[in-house]
Design brief:
With 112 residues, the protein is mainly β. The chain contains no helices and eleven strands. The protein is 0% helix and 53% strand. The strands form two sheets. Strands 2, 4, 5, 6, 9, 10 and 11 form a seven-stranded mixed beta sheet that branches. It has a four-stranded antiparallel beta sheet with strand order 1-3-8-7, with no helix packed on it.
Length: 112
């Protein structure tokens, strides 16, 4: 099982970022993918999850209206888009399949 994420991103406040997570080594549509972020101040925060098979999503209340997860079954890739970025969104973002398999993390830095 492998989850490979896109590279580090630098964004200005007020813009958006889209992070990808490409899965391999298992049947992609059979497992939810969770998105989690780690910030120095808040620690680990669960952002939500997506069912890759039908695109069904569940978002943590904190991120409702500001985040969107999508899935592309043709490439076994899920995406996380976060809008309205502020410095508080500076974090390492992870995708995860169950608690056992995690992507390598994507550093997102929000700074003017």
């Amino acid at each position: 099982v492998q989850l490979v994420q896109s590279g580090a991103e630098l964004r200005n406040p007020g813009t958006s970022v889209k992070v990808s997570c490409k899965a391999s080594g298992y049947t992609f549509i059979n497992y939810y993918i969770d998105w989690v972020r780690h910030t120095p101040g808040q620690g680990l925060e669960w952002m939500g999850r997506i069912d890759p098979e039908d695109g069904g999503t569940m978002y943590a209340q904190k991120f409702q209206g500001r985040v969107t997860f999508t899935s592309d079954t043709s490439t076994s890739t899920v995406y996380m888009e976060l809008r309205g970025l502020t410095s508080a969104d500076t974090a390492v973002y992870y995708c995860a399949k169950t608690v056992a398999y995690w992507g390598q993390g994507t550093q997102v830095t929000v700074s003017s």
